[in-house]
Amino acid sequence: MLLVPPIATKKEGAQLHVTAVPYTKFQHSEDEKRSGRPVEVDDDLIQAIIDSDRHSTTREIAEKLHVSHTCIENHLKQLGYVQKLDTWVPHELKETHLTQRINSCDLLKKRNENDPFLKRLITGDEKWVAYNNIKRKRSWSRPGEPTRTTSKADIHQKKVLLSVWWDYKGIVYFEVLPPNRTINSDVYIEQLTK
Description:
Arc Repressor Mutant, subunit A; alpha+beta; 6 helices; two-stranded antiparallel sheet
């Protein structure tokens, strides 16, 4: 057994102590496999998980690979990924609808110049308020890639109809309609007379 040369330590008022450390114990030791996070994470595994589900969170990926989520964040950054919020898919208007909107606006503008009526207007709208809103999620993309799309909520989910009326000063009246009741001319008249 080889010994490291003795190290003398001395403290005030204490006796001299000599310490020897066996050197052979550490001379040819190999690291054995042990529990804990791996030293390296395969970028191809992270890439495969992202390719299969762009909405995977760093914590979900970390759980699959048995590493910390900050380790995954660092690897995603090195791979060139950034997190982007998905965009809604817009409903496109047809050419006839666009033309109709322009014509209506021109007509109202000319009428208001002759007889100012806009401050006398009360307008209303309805909005379905869903009990379970589908939310846009963040997904991992490279800087040049387009954002992912998220489909809008199913129209047959549980919801209530909110009816709102307002003028140029603000909200005049609002009402949440009972289930299975929709807006028609009778409901409009009833709400406007309140």
